[in-house]
Amino acid sequence: MKKLFDNRLSTETTRLHIIRRSIITLAVIHFSLALISGYRGWAQVKHVRIMTEDEVLGPGSGVAIDVITSGRNPVTLVVEAVQSGKARLLGTDTIPDNRHRFYDPRSQRIRVAVVFTPEILRMFAEGPVLLRARAEGRSQFLRVPPPTIVERESSISWTHAEVAENDGAGEDTMCIVAKIGLPCR
Q1: Which domains does the chain have, with CATH numbers?
Q2: pTM of this prediction exceeds 0.90
Q3: Which of 14-23, 34-43, 45-54 has the lowest mean pLDDT?
């Protein structure tokens, strides 16, 4: 005996079944990428590190700042030296985002080199100095993330003369000489 609800009102063809499964698969992949991309928009700066060749900075000494970002948004890097409560700007740079930031989960990495020339050292007195790197992300989801600030203590000596070589210089390295246009060595 045949019951009332044994037959389906609409039968699905094989073609519609394949189309429906394809759309569901693409939607799952898209929403998974959206979840990952959302986190990358929330946590934009992954890592900031200040590296010096020596604890004493003199003419020709170099400081390298290594920054890794999520690649979702551009990040602004500001490098300062603080002495006696006064901050002096050593350089700024913008770390670019990925071209297809929603779908591209790769990190952006950049190394910035600052060389202390005699002209820069004249702005400071001999003694302790605080090197500060500040990485600031951009607004995302109506929220501006707090800046990532890394500090390193060092000292300045006008007589300490080591020549700064731009270690690890490559395509992802940029050289900034503050206030003047001298190239890195």
Answers
A1: 45-176 (2.60.40.1930)
A2: no
A3: 34-43
